[in-house]
Prior knowledge:
Aminopeptidase
Amino acid sequence: MTSVPECFSESYADARPKFCAAAAQAGGALRSWLNPKARGPNGEALYLDTARFGPADASNMLVLIAGTHGVEGHCGSGAEIAWLRTGGPARLPKDTGALVIHAINPYGFAWTRRVTEDNVDLNRNFIDHDKAYPANDGYLALAAAILPDTWNEASTAATEAVFAAYAQKHGAFGLQGAISAGQYSHPDGVFFGGNAPTWSNRTIRAIAREELSRARRVGIIDFHTGLGPFGHGELICAVSPAAKSFARSKAWYGNEMTSPESGTSTSAVVVGCMTDAFPQELPDAEVTSIALEYGTYSVPEVLGAVRADNWLHQRGDLGSALGRSLKADMKERFFPSGDKWREMVWTRADQTIGWALKGLTGP
């Protein structure tokens, strides 16, 4: 009998061997990619790992992805390991395989950060870097408050006043969008999309081409945390409502699916999502992707933790008492302690994987 809470890990260093062991036990073909640009907090090597199941020429491929936003890898890793340990690969339908991607952003997972080693939000990095970057005037107006010189009660009160004034003028969702939609002007800021494709970006594109090029249908579930009611898994479709894949997602997930562009999601409209890479790299396949977003704490608490973590790495001292406190808060905001939340994560993940497999193998 699998203990669901035991599938989740308190650190990347614990999660990786647990994932590899579960994948091997389930008969998966394992591959690993070393991140050459970063090490973990204890000097450990950082890897993106994949496990492949099913026929090499499977027409249908289920793809599970953990750790796009590093610290959120605690959740995705646990869900993936639970799927492996509860016999998920053995129950794959005929002509259907699975690719399980663990720690796509291993630096962020290991360091309890959302971002990559370049301070890049991977879910804002998948844009055409040869074109002009999207503007975010709201971020420009708030940049000084988002990254203050110091982190204490006085600076927090001052920044909260700035945010409150902005929200009064543009609404709470307008404030959320200004901060989190993505920006390309402040490399030391939050939700920075980068000025070139990151290592994780380049690597996941190569993996897509190598592992999925023979598939006709690809269904992707990308695990995230930090938005919505505690423990609830929202199915977010981040493509345009005009896209063919939007209609497929609606057919697969029905009214469970939400859309930022349609105003039905807890997420702001964002640009440069990681899952955009798959239809780009697999032009002959039908790619249907969703983000499975689990609620943790309120938006102000979560964004506050993100800002504090960014300040800590830009201007603070990781080894200080404040640094340790901010790190503990960052982890809790994206990976709540206790068994209840973890059990809710797996229940929803299991349900969503079932819907994806039904969609993949349907008419």
